[in-house]
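Project standup — Tuesday

K.O.: blocked on the structure for the chain from last sprint. Re-posting the sequence here as requested.
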Amino acid sequence: MPSPNSAYTGRFAPSPSGPLHIGSLVTALASYLDARANQGQWLLRMEDIDPPREQASAAQQIINSLIKHGLQWDGDVFWQSQASATYDFYLQQLLDQNLAYWCACSRRQLAQTKGLHTGQCPHPGTPSNAALRLRIPDESVNFTDQIQGHQTRIQTDIGDPVLKRKDGLYAYQLAVVVDDARQGVTDIVRGVDLLDASAWQIHLQQALGFPSVRYCHIPVIVGADGHKLSKQSFAPALDDSHAIDNLRLALRYLQQTSAPDTITEIQALLRWAIAHWRPQDIPASRYINELSPDALHHHR
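H.V.: unblocked you, prediction finished:
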């Protein structure tokens, strides 16, 4: 945990594939509270680089929900769809240094390695028929997560990730690293389902000469069927008309001490939550079972 006087820049980076749900609010709130408790900046980045998965109105719905819940970001919204030239610049840098390669392997061909691409590429390709992959060195990467503790990953654990897809779209692993560096992000608070991706991203940070960041991966919420709440699993959208109740429920998921019932105004609740923020109380488990709104009436 950085000291309150240290430079801190956090961010919330949703993809506009649907409106926010309670799981995404928990992540947004955790990153917001961690930034504000450390007197830092909190940025909003819209990861709109996958048009086939995006909904036309989702970005504005996300922005509206954050405003309704009092989660005001610093500066302008950053749109990844406007950063293509920057992504191409860094991709070319990696190619020039032989740190990336064109790969025409199909998912079927990689099935025997559980989808991981490790070692020499058996089906090298060209920009017209292949994906661009980062060449991960045969060495371990070690980092300490604020919630999940010490982590170690080796090349055979993670494989060589795609940086640019066969269809020409930029991959998340590239965009997130480049944009975190461009925006000066120092601290990343996000769901534990992205914990393994941190190893790829650390390798890419090092390959591009970017500074390292601090990580905090929080548990993800799973429904009764055991699957993560997500837009893809049709998790219900937040009801913005019940914003203060949504925030209280999100604080319960984060295992934070319940705010007094006498607090009935959103900004007052957020000020209270910032003053009492204890990330060390967030469970180190990977999953948290979904709570019903009735759980709001049972304080810690």
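K.O.: great, moving the ticket to review. The chain has eight helices and twelve strands. Confidence is low (pLDDT under 50) at residues 1-5, 292-300.
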